[in-house]
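Structural prep section.
Before we set up the soaks we want a predicted structure of the protein with flavin mononucleotide in place, mainly to decide which crystallisation condition to try first. Input record follows.
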Amino acid sequence: MKSTFAIDLEKMSRTANVGIVVLFLLAGAAGHFASFYFHFLTVAFFLLVLLNVYWRHVQTSHALLANFGWLAQLRYIVESIGPELRQYLFASDTEERPFSRVKRAEVYRKAKGLDATAAFGSLLSYDRTELKLRHSFYPVDEDELEPFDVAIGASRQLDTTYHIRHPIMISAMSYGALGQNAVRALARGAKQAGATMNTGEGGHPKYHLMEGCDLIFQMGTAKFGVRTADGRLDEDKLAALAALDAIKMVEIKLSQGAKPGKGGLLPKEKITPEIAELRGVTMGQDVVSPAHHVECVDAESTVAFIGCVQRVSGLPTGIKFCLGRPDEFRALVQEMKRQGTVPDFITVDGGEGGTGAAPVSFLDEIGLPLFEALPLVHRILLDEGIRDRLAIFASGKLISAGKQLQAMSLGADVAYSARGFLLALGCIQALQCNQNTCPVGITTHQPELQRGLDIATKAQRVANYIEALHHDHVELLAAMGSSSARLLSEENVYAPSQGPVSWPVREPS
Ligand SMILES: Cc1cc2nc3c(=O)[nH]c(=O)nc-3n(C[C@H](O)[C@H](O)[C@H](O)COP(=O)(O)O)c2cc1C
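Run finished without errors. Recording the tokens verbatim:
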């Protein structure tokens, strides 16, 4: 039995299909008898009639087009602009993903240095799965707070020990995923604010270095910039990079939250002479990013590799991963103790993390969320007695000081943000980072789109955002009655729906 909807649609499409033939004839008659200019319409309707015949009777790949003709085509067009219609007209201020308009607006205001207060009340509904910070009856005075200072490499007494002075750092995003203007604006903003920026896995950080900020050089599984022809570590290249004044630390990326356990491919068509030079790869050949470093096949070889990078670089060196199996992490930590090699920091990236491009199944279905993973990593390091020998960095939608302090309460020492900084640069969440068509010129290499991203203006916004986050960090800490983020613990957060061990599964919104 046909549904009422199907009967209506059939009638509509029959009328529409006959209708364009009638319109074609009417336009032809008007062109003949009234004015020649009507023949423009005659031609347009004639083309539509021809296309309609093609859609209905020739092509076989689209059933809707074959059954309903140009009305179905209209539906495809409306569907294709659905995201924009929803974003601009229909979605409420709190429902867009990954970041609602309310959350994005908070970053935009901070970045523009606008009044960050709001009136009447919170726009968020009370959610029992969300963490809240616990405040104290006895707030401390803001001027009693310890200055933020996390020393990395101090436990190894390195001459190169690095001091992180802001609670937030710019997380890894490579030149490649980002265009050069975006990289330079971020790096200049970091320099202005005295903050630290991760280079991402794009190889030699040419555009980062132009701005003179402190950098964490990231080495992904393809080891761009520091690879031998067969994809192993080229120790000489790493040593040369590590000797640069701006490079303060090295991060070995084992995995990232958006696509843990997934390698990648840089197709030869995308390898320009500049990218080939910066990444240290050959033009005309596809480059494979393996799912893991070729040197790292088990706990023993992974720890040995960390030790090798520490030795070659002479810099504080850490690892980045998204947690999958806590038992594997515990085994890795036990191997660190056995070999006497402990990374100087561990970056825990939540499964909700962002990316330039990843398969949807990986974005949606794999990897522990940050607020699940952090307490596990922190606890295992405590249990195994090495927590005081390294720092934990955390990333995963930590775009406000409140979320950053929640992460610090669950074990992090410093927060990282990637997408928070894209928003500060003016990202409108068009979700096109993988298409080279970013309308605000951030994740694109098209000069005509990058043109709109003015480096000086956006650098100031990045600096404003860092400073506003630091300001909020101080105010919230004071309200929590704590003189330093390093004193925070699970006691400082409140999870309404559960006890002290199982943390909420829902990601922060
Ligand atoms: C455009 C883009 C490019 C990224 N590139 C890298 C990368 O090169 N290496 C890496 O480890 N993570 C990369 N990430 C992941 C971020 O560093 C970060 O771990 C993740 O997005 C979580 O932080 P967020 O929620 O603040 O964005 C990228 C993310 C984005 C949005």
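Observations: Residues 171-174, 177, 200-201, 218, 220, 253, 256-257, 320, 349, 353-356, 395-398, 417-420, 433, 443 surround flavin mononucleotide (CB under 6 Å).
Flagged for discussion at group meeting.
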